[in-house]
Structure prediction request, 479 residues.
Amino acid sequence: MFDGAQVLPAEQSLARVQHILPAERRALGKRARIQVPREGHGGWQAPADRPDPVALLEVQAQSRIPELVPIRYGRMLTSPFAFYRGGAAIMAADLARTPVSGLRTQICGDAHLSNFGGFASPDRDLVFDINDFDETLAGPWEWDVKRLAASLEIAGRGRGCSEKECRPLVMAAVAAYRLAMREFAALPNLAVWYARLDMAGVRQRWGRELQPAELANLEQEFSAPQGRDNLRVYEKLTERVGGELRIASHPPLVVPIEKIYGADEQATAEEEMREYIRRLRHSLQDHVRHLLENFEYQHMARKVVGVGSVGMNAWIILLRGRDDQDLLFLQAKEAQASVLELHLGKSHFADHGQRVVEGQRLMQGASDIFLGWERIPGQDGTSRDFYVRQLWDWKVSADVQTMPLRELMVYGQMCGWTLARAHARSGDRIAIAAYLGKDTCFDDAIAEFATAYADQNEKDYRALVAAVKSGRIKATTGI
Prediction:
């Protein structure tokens, strides 16, 4: 395994690895605790030279599709929680000023509540895991924990919870992370690698914390995506034009290729996409490459996705297999530099699509079989990095702002356990567990941080509202 000083496999796969004994790794974690006390992670106070949060968003907008940027701002205006979802760059700049233990893992970089969810594993089991890795990079594990904890505090406030109600939500999630890391520290390497969370695991770990009706509701929500496969997407997103299957137009969220380009440009773009799919195969396993070769390109459309990603290039691609009942929808999403790189250094990977894919494969318990990457030359002369996955394969994300409070507490614990598992796969789980310890010192500190940072997030949200009212930026709401 890797100690805290080692580069991580998703960043430098050819680096020499040091193998040290568990006792030495525990000592490493305890030394880190002395150098950076756990209580030092508590609280947050904005420094006098803190960057303007709206200015950070404006910098990001410079590399995005101009007509879509107002939709991003509009979605962020929906609530402080929606603002937080889109503000990964803001928090990265703030986290860069906070204490860290010096123990590194592969981190998600945007580990808020809504970036966890259920989806189908390659063996068609429904699993719960992190589902967004656009910002992934090697870095301090504490950053992911703090982003998750603050998202719980913000989500709790958004549903009207008092401070007395919010703090247990955060404490439970952080405790789940700490206890899971201690659990993983005692497991063999392969057991950690194969660990994943399904509904049976949820019942076993947290079933006693819910009433039977609440557990049944969570099970129903968790199992709802079964059947949300490519045929369901077909029913929702396609239409027949001249007898041919085409992706239906729903502007500005879904815009077919022919409504973006003229005939000549469209032909060029579609041929580039066909070539992209051919080149994509090199990043797939051989058996998946063979499967992909049995599908033929049919159509493509630009799609607006998420909150923080709005304005980046994202295409949905319709491919046809044996017949019109044998369809595959892929999503090719642009990958730009992680917002963490400004503070942690550039990725080892020259292709940011590869950065996302390698980080996802390292952190997820089970990844989409079509997960791959390739660079696309743009018609404007600019090459862009993209990564690909299936568009919709039993995917579901919980509505954390409406679910009952006890369900939200369990959901936060599920996220905490999952995040610990992801970190344990790439970092020194024994050293991190030793740093965290047996008591709630770290939990208390992170809860204090979450409260203070939620206050900061509300101020930043109001700054965005003021920027829209003043005309500094334009926002399109209701989309």
